[in-house]
């Protein structure tokens, strides 16, 4: 049930500093998963990192006021700052993001709207495999789904979590599992941790 | 609609734009309209001279929504292999010509946020069909046209001189590609059409400022400059054909009545590629990869020639 044979799912590789870029912006959603090869002291590399309030001062994460990566309280705050930042940017920038899959494609969407293309953006999956699931019936986004079947927070349908990932919506598609035989809901497994 | 075969057209107007430039207007022969052409599209014009036939590719300079007529602008080249002399000196108003259906190998990148168009000389032509589209879309763009001092006025006239986004740089003016590309907003794409040297300078400058390859577009117009004559042997049909000094391989094949595949005739599309069985090609196209060039197993017949006296093709 987990391997649904869907070939269109994005594949990820470790981030690599692209030497053809003139300036680099690295977005790190999970402070425990910092990519290698991005020396943050170099003036052309800027790092943004999500540091929840309780992680401040932990190993390797600078305290407020210290030099180093720009810190954000949440993913949402980082994403909200990205669009305005890219609107100021010039050609020659390379954007890198590491984190959960939904975050990566949120970043990609913001980059595309800013006119960036494939050769300018690198995405690498890190951290939890929990899925954002889009209910194809009521269009609700269900965050952090770890089970193969999930109850939609919008319409209450039992959704089968497909491997079909939409890059535009940054979400996996969820379809009513008992559409043919109402009430016939198979037992769910925890598959996406 | 898929169009096969040629469009029958008539020359309905010829304007002398400058001492070396003429604009030709074609209308459909009989009732009906031409197909819609994408911005940057070209047509192959078949010219039947007394001794030989040319099929030359010219960019349409008309707006894509103009279907009642097409127009091209042609420079009369001194060192011409004949095509531009024929079209300038022999073609008259009222003459019938055959046009291929328009094809575009030089489209506008629809996701770009800004477009920089850099033309050199007659390489202006594809941009003449870009301009009405970019203006109508309200997209940010800049056009820079490099040309000889004597052509400045003619090009200003073609491009619309009162648009502050359009710049015509005569050869006496000092202008730099660096300044055009150094500080452009994210999401900018650059397009060049013109002499090889200009296109190379644009590509190198863009790379130096960190532009990704997919943001750099170029179209070279057939720069087939001729070369040493050679013979081509077609293995399947067992024919041997002489390729003259001022002829391309493709033209020699066509001259012998062979319907060889082709589309752009400028080494850009790869439709004309044929397998090589023997002999060493001299590659002049823009399609093959370094590895394919080194292997020498395929040849773009529209531009490339032979280093050896004889070339055998699997055709």
State the gist of this model.
With 193 residues, chain A is an alpha/beta fold.
Describe the structure.
The complex is a heterodimer of chains A (193) and B (315). Chain A is of the alpha/beta class and 193 residues long. Helix content of chain A is 14%, strand content 28%. In chain A, the strands form 2 sheets. Chain A has a 5-stranded parallel β-sheet with strand order 3-2-1-4-5. In chain A, α2 links the parallel β4 (93-99) and β5 (121-125). In chain A, α1 runs parallel beside α2. The longest helix of chain A has 14 residues, at 75-88. Chain A is elongated. Chain B has 315 residues and is an alpha/beta fold. Chain B has 3 domains: 2-99, Translation factors (Elongation Factor Tu (Ef-tu), domain 3, Beta Barrel), CATH 2.40.30.10; 114-220, Nucleotide-binding domain of ferredoxin-NADP reductase (FNR) module (Rossmann fold, 3-Layer(aba) Sandwich), CATH 3.40.50.80; 230-313, Beta-grasp domain (Ubiquitin-like (UB roll)), CATH 3.10.20.30. Chain B is built from 7 helices and 19 strands. Chain B has helices at 83-89, 125-137, 152-159, 177-181, 196-208, 249-255, 290-295, and strands spanning 7-18, 21-28, 41-48, 53-59, 70-75, 96-99, 103-104, 114-120, 140-147, 166-170, 188-193, 216-219, 230-234, 239-243, 273-278, 281-282, 298-300, 305-306, 310-313. In chain B, the strands form 4 sheets. In chain B, strands 1, 2, 3, 4, 5, 6 and 7 form a 7-stranded antiparallel β-sheet that branches. Chain B has a 5-stranded parallel β-sheet with strand order 10-9-8-11-12, sandwiched between helices. In chain B, strands 14-13-19-15-17 form a 5-stranded mixed β-sheet. The model of chain B has no long low-confidence stretch (mean pLDDT 88). The A-B interface holds A 20-23, 86-87, 89-94, 112, 114-120 and B 111-114, 181, 183-188, 207, 209-215.
